[in-house]
Specification:
Its EC number is 2.7.1.45. The protein is of the alpha/beta class. It is globular, with a radius of gyration of 18 Å. The strands form 2 sheets. A 9-stranded mixed β-sheet has the order 5-4-1-8-9-10-11-12-13, with helices on both faces. It has a 4-stranded mixed β-sheet with strand order 3-2-6-7. Bound molecules: adenosine-5'-diphosphate.
Length: 309
């Protein structure tokens, strides 16, 4: 039995959020770290793979993983490169993200730092487009990890998470499409996928993703729920009704819940119905991490929903 259920490869980030004019509150982010936390809260044995700097930001992330029960045995601490950070500022047009991540510890994790033993010690390896966008070294590191996962029979999960601030569309397209040929469970979002595949219809997007090889696609549709497809079947799942205040990180919440639920033996459709509720609950509070539901909360919401519906 592998030591972990879900190992998440990518860049953890420290967040500095201007919660009051001129005052910044320290928090944590980074898409795959958020997925690991979402999964741990639902009972999965999740871990993070990558690197942080030997600095206060890395320490904040370490304290968070320890508090959330996320394994960090495969997270190295780099003495010469910093933890990536981002600032959130708030203006009349909503919030604005400013990144300081070039040359970060995570961006230096290339193929030589991806150990087969680490990959073989998990049931699912999860990575994303952001994991590959941060540097060419990291892009190659992710490809090496996906190849090692396939060699070891580890399920590969991949969220397209397209960020055009990090790389041009042509390079993102080539890299992400190649990564999807090595993926078992694809977790794209509608806006990303429309740009990556040049089609907007959710069914056409699922066709395009399945044609690259994944056995399962769960396409998230924001406030419209999700569309789940396998080569044999597909199902549209309406959003779970909630009073949403902030959908930051809803995709990460979805991924963590989907993968946890899938590993518990549910088929992709049942796993997505559960993830759809979990992601909806995560939009009821501010930030990506604080409102992530715990298992008891998710189970209670599903029971309530069944009783009322
Ligand atoms: P991303 O963060 O990757 O852009 P989405 O915005 O597609 O992801 O949201 C992911 C999932 O979160 C959706 O599939 C849905 O389950 C849930 N979700 C997002 N916004 C809402 C909302 N307003 N109401 C209910 N559920 C939501």
């Amino acid at each position: 039995m592998p030591a972990l259920d879900i190992l998440c490869l990518g860049e953890p980030l420290a967040e500095l959020n201007e919660t009051e004019a001129g005052r910044f509150t320290l928090g944590c982010g980074g898409d795959v770290s958020n997925v690991a936390i979402a999964a741990a809260r639902l009972g999965a044995r999740s871990g993070v793979l990558g690197a942080i700097g030997d600095d206060a930001f890395g320490e904040a992330l370490t304290a968070l993983w320890d508090a959330e029960g996320v394994d960090r045995a495969h997270m190295s601490v780099d003495r010469d490169a910093p933890t990536g950070i981002y600032f959130v500022t708030h203006g009349p047009d909503g919030h604005r993200f400013s990144y300081r991540r070039a040359g970060s510890a995570a961006s230096l994790v290339g193929p030589d730092r991806i150990l087969a033993e680490a990959i073989a010690a998990t049931r699912i390896l999860h990575a994303s487009g952001i994991s590959q966008a941060i540097s060419t070294t990291a892009a190659d590191g992710v490809f090496a990890a996906l190849a090692k996962a396939r060699d070891a029979g580890v399920v590969v999960s991949y969220d397209t998470n397209l960020r055009l601030k990090l790389w041009p569309l042509a390079r993102a397209r080539a890299t992400i499409r190649e990564a999807l040929t090595l993926t078992d469970v694809a977790l794209p979002g509608l806006d990303d996928a429309a740009l990556l595949f040049g089609v907007e219809d959710p069914d056409a997007i699922c066709d395009a993703v399945l044609a690259l090889g994944p056995k399962v696609v769960a396409l998230t549709l924001g406030a419209h729920g999700c569309l789940v497809a396998t080569p044999e079947r597909r199902e549209r799942i309406a959003a779970h009704p909630v009073r949403a205040v902030d959908a930051t990180g809803a995709g990460d919440a979805f991924d963590g819940a989907f993968l946890t639920s899938y590993l518990e033996g549910r088929d992709p459709f049942a796993a997505a119905r559960r993830a759809n509720v979990s992601a909806a609950l995560s939009t009821r509070g501010y930030g990506a991490i604080p409102p992530l539901p715990r298992r008891t909360e998710l189970d209670a919401e599903i029971t309530r929903d069944a009783a009322s519906g």
